[in-house]
Amino acid sequence: MAVSPPVFHKESGRRKVGKERLHGSIAHQLGVAITSGRHKPGDILSNEIEFSERLKVSRGAYREAVRILAAKGLVESRPRVGTRVTEMIRWNLLDPDVLAWFFEAEPAREVVEGLFELRMIVEPAAAALAALRRTEEQVEVMRAALNDMERLTLKTEAGQAADRDFHQAVLAATCNPPLASLASTIGAGVRWTTFYKGRKRKLPADPMPEHWAVFDAIAAGDADGAREAMQVLVANALSQTAEALGDR
Predict the structure, then answer these.
(1) Structural domains in the chain (count)
(2) What residues make up the domain containing 65?
């Protein structure tokens, strides 16, 4: 089934949109249309001539946007067939951009719950390793992130960024490169689920005690305590998000 492109808005107040910004904007809007289900697996996107003429953008910008989506697994292009939306199983769901596109609309329950399952597998084990391997400098990075989070609160974008920084710092403190490479994914998951809960008015009254419990255990070198504290933190975040999903 062929589908029309989403409405594309160039930036107002600017005479010229940079090439990188333009194809990034096209990829973003197509990505949101795909992850939200407006473009379903098997759908054929408009060809580059139709797309570029309709939206008054260059064919090159559209082709580059499609390359971005293809690299993330959302589409595939074939001669004489066109650009087809792929099945979700082929999407790179660990890509921070793909996660952001999901949460821009109403994310699929299976994606949200799967993200928390991933966090529950990774983060408690990472906290335990961090307790054994962290440096004093890494402890101070975590402390600074939590101080910012406490001061700014999760109601602000800066406070949410501090929350993300804390979770990423825990992964970095494992001193395990493959684990640390998940930092951007875990950080994006923390950010977007917090954003989603806030949009549904399900933010916890005070998330700090759970976070400080993780920090205290890591700082004390208590691996078992760090694992248990992180399990509690992630489980409570999942419970709050489940309530938000139930409001839909």
Answers:
(1) 2
(2) 2-90
Backbone dihedral angles phi then psi of residue 6, each to the nearest 5 degrees: -70, 160
**Nearest residue to 220 via CA among 127, 145, 131:** 131
Count Cβ neighbours within 10 Å for each residue of 144-179 and write b for 16 or more, e otherwise.
ebbebbeebbbeeeebbbbbbbbbbbbbbbbebeeb
Judged by DSSP in three states, 2 sits in strand
Do 120 and 201 lie in one domain? The reply is: yes
d(CA 109, CA 138): 34
- pLDDT tens per residue across span 190-238: 888 777 777 666 555 688 999 999 999 999 999 999 999 999 999 988 8
Assess whether 121 and 221 both reside in one domain.
yes
Q: State how far the Cα of 18 lies from the Cα of 22, in Å rounded to an integer.
A: 6
Burial class (CB in 10 A: 0-12, 13-18, 19+), 92: middle
Global pTM value: 0.79
Q: 102 in a domain, yes or no?
A: no
Tokens of 7: 């409405």
> Are both 52 and 167 inside the same structural domain?
no
pLDDT digits (tens, 9 = 90+) for 30-50: 999 999 999 999 999 888 778
Query: Is residue 112 located within the same domain as residue 85?
Result: no
Contact 194, 157 (CB under 8 A): no
Is residue 21 domain-shared with residue 129, that is, in the same domain?
Answer: no
